[in-house]
């Protein structure tokens, strides 16, 4: 592990974290779980004592042959990615990095995935196992390098997207992927209607597409795979070359599109494949179509109910990404229906009876 230690500081503070959680449980003290604190904009603000995770870092084990890596939650994403890249491997879900301090624990807790997600899978699809601090301050292992624990519940994957509301992630084991041998990105001038038709057509063919987006009269595609496959598809599609940094700027929200005016909030619309443009009073230039149109970034001053009604009618949902101080929604996530809310409450009550883990991070009531 000497070579990998160059990328990630190796420090295990799990015992200290367990003591802090145990004390919080006994005194009913709410905890705000903090890694790099680069994703604070995603979700509701948490009022609680900070549980600092950044020092709990380092790569615990890495087997490039088996495509498995285990890493502590406070490890910076940049350090993990650098270590994997040395073996020509990567995190398949292409996690967004909203700053140099971004940690792998935060990436899993928020469950966010980058442009490759429709073709490779979501963050939870790559989680093999976790170690989690429970409400009583016990450090338990779930999964490992298998897909579910002995109780039959896939608790490791359940932690992906839970935003720390069910326990404290300390270690995560991932399935990793080889970096493709060849990659080429291109751009094509095309209107939105024709772009959506073309994307539907391309989706029915065995092409090496791993990212597809449209904005402001241009379709953007990324091709990855074997040299011959990428070259043949490139020749078929033609188009102007596109710098690979485009996908990083889209993934990390550093693209110029994500600059908001004072009256705008940023929304993420999640929709079924091949959904037509929604009937919303929003300029075309203020919508960025990602994931071949299934994920749409919207800059708007429209209210939450209008956006969510339009998404719900199409079978999707809307999430606000903008912090409250900048005009975002008071409830960033789509309200749960009664059945789902019941299961959510029951799960929360079982795993966090006193509400100490990131209270009200997802919803105000729990």
TrEMBL record:
Keyword tags: FAD, Flavoprotein, Oxidoreductase
MF-aspect GO terms: FAD binding; glycolate dehydrogenase activity
Pfam families, per the entry: FAD_binding_4
All residue ranges annotated as the FAD-binding PCMH-type domain in the record: 1-179
PANTHER family: D-LACTATE DEHYDROGENASE, GLYCOLATE OXIDASE SUBUNIT GLCE
NCBIfam families xref list: PRK11282.1 (NF008439)
Name by which UniProt lists this protein: Glycolate oxidase subunit GlcE
Annotated organism of origin: Vreelandella glaciei
Gene name in the database record: glcE
């Amino acid at each position: 592990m000497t070579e990998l230690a160059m990328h990630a500081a190796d420090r295990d503070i799990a015992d200290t974290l367990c003591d802090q959680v145990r004390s919080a449980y006994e005194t009913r003290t709410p905890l705000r779980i903090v890694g790099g604190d680069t994703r604070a904009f995603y979700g509701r603000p948490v009022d609680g004592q900070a549980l600092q995770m950044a020092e709990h870092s380092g790569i615990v084990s890495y087997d490039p042959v088996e495509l498995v890596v285990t890493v502590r939650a406070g490890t910076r994403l940049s350090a993990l990615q650098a270590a994997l890249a040395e073996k020509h491997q990567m995190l398949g879900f292409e996690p967004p990095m909203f700053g140099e301090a971004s940690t792998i624990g935060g990436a899993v807790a928020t469950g966010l995935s980058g442009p490759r997600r429709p073709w490779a899978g979501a963050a939870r699809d790559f989680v093999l196992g976790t170690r989690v601090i429970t409400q009583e301050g016990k450090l338990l292992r779930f999964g490992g390098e298998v897909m579910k624990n002995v109780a039959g519940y896939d608790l490791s994957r359940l932690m992906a997207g839970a935003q720390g509301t069910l326990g404290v992630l300390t270690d995560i084991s991932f399935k990793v992927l080889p970096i493709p041998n060849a990659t080429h990105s291109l751009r094509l001038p095309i209107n939105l209607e024709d772009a959506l038709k073309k994307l539907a057509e391309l989706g029915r063919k065995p092409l090496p597409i791993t990212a597809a987006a449209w904005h402001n009269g241009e379709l953007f595609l990324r091709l990855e795979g074997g040299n011959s496959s990428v070259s043949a598809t490139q020749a078929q599609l033609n188009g102007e070359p596109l710098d690979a940094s485009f996908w990083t700027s889209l993934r990390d929200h550093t693209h110029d599109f994500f600059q908001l005016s004072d009256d705008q909030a940023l929304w993420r619309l999640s929709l079924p494949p091949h959904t037509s443009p929604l009937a919303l009073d929003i300029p075309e230039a203020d919508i960025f179509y990602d994931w071949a149109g299934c994920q749409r970034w919207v800059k708007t001053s429209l209210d939450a109910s209008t956006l969510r009604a339009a998404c719900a009618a199409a079978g999707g949902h809307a999430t606000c990404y903008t912090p409250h101080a900048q005009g975002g929604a008071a409830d960033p996530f789509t309200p749960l229906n009664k059945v789902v809310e019941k299961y959510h409450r029951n799960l929360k009550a079982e795993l966090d009876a006193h509400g100490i883990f990131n209270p009200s991070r997802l919803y105000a009531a729990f």
